[in-house]
Specification:
Oligomer: single chain
Strand content: 15-25%
Largest sheet: 8 strands, mixed
Helix content: 25-40%
Number of domains: 2
Number of strands: 22
Shape: globular
Number of helices: 15
CATH topology of the largest domain: Alkaline Phosphatase, subunit A
Distance between the termini: 21 Å
Length: 418
């Protein structure tokens, strides 16, 4: 499975987009008109939904990392490099495959740090002493020094090396399941906006990376037995305005400077098109939530305020279940996004940019799904699916079952009787 981070479903409808490999796979396999992400529509929650078949109410991944809450009302922070066992609270397809005796692999997948059920890996931050890393060094694909400074290089170069790692794993180790994640488009869309000239170039670049994987499958003969699934985690919107809710909280006395770090009775954390609100004063939670509703209702750029009573239908966990759960969720109107600053103006303007994170029913947030290869029917078009259906479908292709999944195996691929 290849994930092309930030690839919107609507992009596939543009005939100007130079993606011959993806169009070939869609033409010869099964392609959905779109794939619905889960809330929040950001990278880690949706990659986790794709491999677990459950939304954030079950897997509890709400950020690109783990939320940590300091004592005394300090600003919550997000820690990305936390163990998978700590972050993901649902069985994954790679867990189930490993338990069944199959081999598993990952390249730049997320919320997977130190996963015990991955056989081979080339992680987001590679280790020059890792097995696959040493193989690439021996092949002169990359140097140990380049791996030590990997995070400082360009995103396109990182995608190039991640693709080389995926090729290496497929050719030499032939895993039963490979999860592979590419990031160039997401970075480009954030910087220049979706469907910009830079975005078109990034999508063409990713199409070439998919072709490299397809070529490996065909060159090694794996294509006779392999199914290739291409997905994305979310779509994208352009925006022109940034909302800074913490500025409003400061003006209303809910945040204060204090000695050292700012303190507050509540903090708003941006997820792009949505923001999540955490009350940090447990003794005043009910009154602070009520005050926040009064402060934020009708404020410029805020489309809706969701309370915990709305969380079940949105797929958010409840605060009684996990400390990752917020107390309120804010949704921005189109052309606006949230930001975390607590000083300056409440709303600011930007020249250009793109973001995601809006409520998952937003047409612009819909993702892609294409399946091709062994066991995949040819030339089938299906309507919108949920990304919760991906893990059960992969499980069925492997002869396994995702018993706890909220989604189901796609019948056009698996058949209604399986």
């Amino acid at each position: 499975m290849i994930s092309l981070d930030g690839f919107p479903a609507y992009a596939l409808d543009d005939p100007r987009l130079p993606i011959p490999t993806l169009r070939k796979l869609a033409r010869e396999g099964v392609a959905a008109t779109s794939m619905r992400p889960v809330n929040p529509t950001v990278t880690w929650p949706n990659h986790t939904a794709i491999v677990t078949g459950v939304d954030a109410s079950e897997h509890h991944v709400l950020f690109n990392g783990l939320l940590t809450r300091p004592d005394g009302g300090g600003r919550p922070s997000i820690e990305p490099w936390r163990e998978k066992e700590t972050m993901v609270h649902a069985p994954t397809i790679y867990d189930i495959a490993h338990q069944a005796g199959l081999t598993t692999a990952q390249v730049d997948w997320v919320a997977i740090y130190r996963a015990k059920t991955i056989t081979w890996q080339f992680p987001e931050l590679p280790d020059p002493n890792g097995v696959i890393e040493r193989e690439l060094i021996a092949d002169k694909t990359v140097t140990a020094e380049q791996l030590r400074t990997f995070e400082d290089s360009s995103q396109a170069w990182q995608d190039e090396i991640w693709t080389a790692a995926a090729e290496e794993i497929l050719e030499k180790h032939k895993p039963n399941l490979l999860l592979f994640h590419l990031l160039t488009l997401d970075d480009t869309n954030h910087e220049y906006g979706p469907m910009s000239p830079a975005s078109f170039t990034a999508m063409a670049f990713l199409d070439a990376k998919v072709k490299q994987i397809l070529d490996v499958l065909q060159r090694t003969g794996l294509s006779r037995h392999a199914a290739l699934i291409v997905v994305s985690d979310h779509g994208f919107r352009s925006f022109k305005h940034k909302i800074h809710p913490n500025v409003l909280l400061r003006k209303k006395g809910l945040l204060s400077e204090g000695p050292g770090q700012p303190k507050g009775d509540a903090w708003v954390l941006s997820e792009g098109g949505t923001a999540v609100v955490y009350v940090t004063n447990p003794d005043r939670k009910a009154s602070v939530v009520s005050e926040l509703r009064n402060i934020l209702t009708g404020a410029e750029g805020i489309d809706h305020i969701y309370g915990v009573e709305d969380f079940p239908k949105l797929g958010y966990p409840l605060p009684a279940v996990t400390d990752q759960a917020p107390d309120l969720v804010l949704n921005a109107v189109p052309d606006y996004m949230f930001s975390n600053e607590s000083d300056g103006e409440f709303v600011t303007e930007v020249a250009t940019g793109g973001t995601h994170g809006y409520i998952n029913t937003d047409p612009k947030m819909q993702a892609i799904f294409i399946a091709w290869g062994a066991g995949i029917p040819a030339g089938v078009r299906i309507n919108s699916i949920a990304n919760l259906d991906v893990a059960p479908t992969i499980a069925a292709l492997l002869g396994l079952e995702m018993k706890q999944a909220q989604g189901h195996a796609i019948p056009e691929i698996i058949g209604s009787g399986r």
